[in-house]
Amino acid sequence: MNSEKLLLLFFVVFGNIVMAQTKPATASKLGGGSARVPPAIKCVDPDSAVACKSFKQLIDARDSGVLFGVLGDPKDAGRHFGYVCPRRGLDTFTMVEFAVSEKREFKPFITVGDDKLKRLFAEVAVGQDPATPLSLSAVNQWNQDHRLGQLFATGFVGLTIYQDGELAGIQIENGEWSRPAAAPGAAHDEAYASFDGGHYWVQSYNQLHAGGSPEVDDPEKLHLHIDGRVVYAHYTYKDRKGDLVDYVLQIHRSTGRFTETFKAAGDQSDNSGTCMIFKY
Question: What average pLDDT does the structure give for the chain?
Fold first, then answer.
């Protein structure tokens, strides 16, 4: 069975049993949820004006990639969030976008079947390469994490970087949203929902079992976690000199304030600012 069929099997079974300024700019759904209108961008912070104006130019030009990151898919029932984070003094901005599933889309996950099926669910969920299967310990941990009292929904998060008005990089992390089964609130109350990407889950497992045999983890893939307070993204990449850079982005969801950390060959640089926040 190829990977596409495995992924389809997992989702079928799982679904059945389971403007850079002092204050973040916020756009909301207009017209009773029918049309999603591109926002008007105002660049008032001189420190991030170059990146902000580049973002505004792409919005005004109705660039399809940027509009999708900001507006999301109007056919998606989940609530869409877009965070656009301009880098100070540079024509560079990072965009993180995702949709929080509706409350009714969250389902309990009931571990069924034999050990082979349990392994299949775990490895497809975390996106593990069949050539490097999870250990039995990791499989058991994944199934244990899907305990009673939690509801789950599949999802993904996209992170894109634009430099000099052009798309410079894109990362996508597939994973799961979860929330307590008894969580109160409205259908889109994201304060109770959290997201763990597959690579983030493997990273967390290795940290929890430090000293043991680590699971195979690709550091160049996006490792992403979201909860009601923060967005956390982590991956490594090679810069223009060929040096490996360890990159971490953290966004405070309520204020839009963000920090970036770049570590390479004993050197570290940091950046901070305020993301524009878009909600639809």
Answer: 85
In this prediction, residue 6 carries a pLDDT of 41
pTM: 0.84
d(CA 92, CA 78): 29
Contact 242, 264 (CB under 8 A): no
- The token pair at 223 is 């490792």
Q: Which residues pair with 248 in a beta bridge?
A: 234, 261
Q: What is the pLDDT of residues 184-219, one digit of tens each?
A: 666 566 778 999 999 999 999 999 998 888 999 999
Tokens of 171: 């990362």
- Are 93 and 86 in contact, with CB atoms under 8 Å apart? yes
Q: Is residue 269 helix, strand or coil?
A: strand
CB-based contacts of 100, cutoff 8 Å, min separation 6: 78, 79, 81, 155, 177, 188, 190, 193
pLDDT higher than threshold 80 for residue 124 = yes
Which strand ranges, in their side-by-side order, compose the sheet holding 244-252?
26-27, 276-279, 79-86, 92-100, 150-163, 166-180, 194-197, 223-226, 230-238, 244-252, 257-264, 267-274
Integer Cα distance of 14 and 109 in angstroms: 7
More confident residue, 124 or 261: 261
CB contact at 8 A, 10 and 16: no
Q: Is 70 in a helix, a strand, or coil?
A: helix
- Closest by Cα among 112, 59, 104, 106 to 82: 59
Residues 142 and 136: their CA atoms lie apart, in Å, by 10
Backbone angles phi, psi at 232, to 5 degrees: -120, 125
What is the sign, positive or negative, of the torsion defined by CA atoms of 25, 29, 31, 35? positive
H or E stretch covering 207: helix 198-208
